[in-house]
Specification:
The chain is an alpha+beta fold. The chain has helices at 53-61, 68-75, 81-93, and strands spanning 2-4, 22-24, 28-33, 36-41, 47-50, 97-99. Helix content is 26%, strand content 21%.
């Protein structure tokens, strides 16, 4: 469902966990296309193809949900949810999405460009 235009990230990071909150990386721009969208990361200059319109919607709305699983559940039929979570795992590895801190009173938002873990 995603196709990277460059190699994989070489740094160590926490694996994707659908129960955690994520957001589209602030340095990523998404350009709609007939097949889905192109996601371009201005920081690492990586280009990623989002090959399904529903995946584009999930990525763009991740920050509105308490978890990735909730975002997927809101936009994807039950039978396809595991596939979309695998796609989000690849998008995390490509820095298209990043982990974010859960929102609760007193929580500090993550700094732009940093990854919350």
């Amino acid at each position: 469902m995603t196709s990277e235009g460059a190699g994989t990230s070489g740094d160590a990071r926490a694996p994707f966990d659908a129960a955690r909150p994520y957001e589209k990386h602030p340095q990523v721009a998404i350009r709609p296309e007939s097949f889905g969208a192109l996601a371009y990361h201005y920081g690492n200059r990586r280009l990623v193809f989002l090959k399904a319109p529903a995946l584009v919607t999930v990525v763009e709305t991740l920050g509105d949900f308490p978890s990735a699983a909730a975002a997927v559940a809101a936009h994807v039929p039950d039978a396809q949810r595991e596939t979309y979570c695998k796609a989000l795992s690849g998008l995390l590895a490509s820095d298209v999405i990043r982990a974010r801190l859960p929102c609760w009173p007193g929580a500090r938002p993550s700094a732009p460009g940093s990854v919350s873990e």
